[in-house]
Specification:
- With about 270 residues, the chain is an alpha/beta fold.
- The protein has a single domain, classed as Rossmann fold (3-Layer(aba) Sandwich).
- Helix content is about 40%, strand content about 20%.
- The chain contains eleven helices and seven strands.
- It has a seven-stranded mixed sheet, sandwiched between helices.
- The mean pLDDT is about 95.
Length: about 270
Amino acid sequence: MEKSYYNEVASHFDEDAKLFEQRYDENPVLKKIRNDFRRYTEKHDFSSALEIGCGPGIDMVYFCSKYPDKAFHAFDVSEKMVSIAQNNLEKEDLSNGVVKQGSVEDIPEMFPGKKFDLVYVYFGGLNTVVDLKTAVKTLRGVVTDDATFVLTNVNRYYILDVVFKLLKLKFSEAFARFQNRWKGYSPGRDLPSNVYSFKKIKSDFTPEFEIIEKRGYSIFYPPWYAAGYLKKLPFLEKPLWKLDKLLQKTPLWNNGEYSLYVMKAR
């Protein structure tokens, strides 16, 4: 079951591999959100970092370049993503980054004996694991006792998305996340994945990690795939970003496209 599932996920991302760099280069919303993820990550001291779901290595190249004295390890389930990431590191002549193909459950075999004091996952890499509780236990086993974990995930509840789909009379799609029927971002090609609520994250992580910070994204500010709205209405970019920041102390903080959690190992 586990192997066939990850083969299906890998096949999906193999097909999309070349699109990821293009999206990043052309999408200002994606860049802004990613830079904020990095800002939270860079608040914390570390010496050896692990990236979950590295894709084409966009963040590996960034971190390896900025911190040449630190060691970076990463993995992705997609063979093509791993190949692109390795090529990107080689192009920049970065020797402090290692990329492997595999899933969370494979970390002890991919990086035997390694202990990480920073783990980060951007844009939902843990939304495609077989079992989140098992993944959390594996992660706790490969980090130091003072490790920091920066998690971003696709949310179960995204209220503005529900409203837009209802207005378009797409009733089934509007409530797909609530009913575990969310199929990812590629129209016509379903991605077997899970979307998580704050309750789920808290339940599965807190036995092993303590949540010390949290932040919601794209509550009213567009998600990366809706960046076209800001091209048409650029004057809304700053107000919507500020509005999302103001909503962090309200129950709406967890009702956007993504949530970020900063955790410390227990």
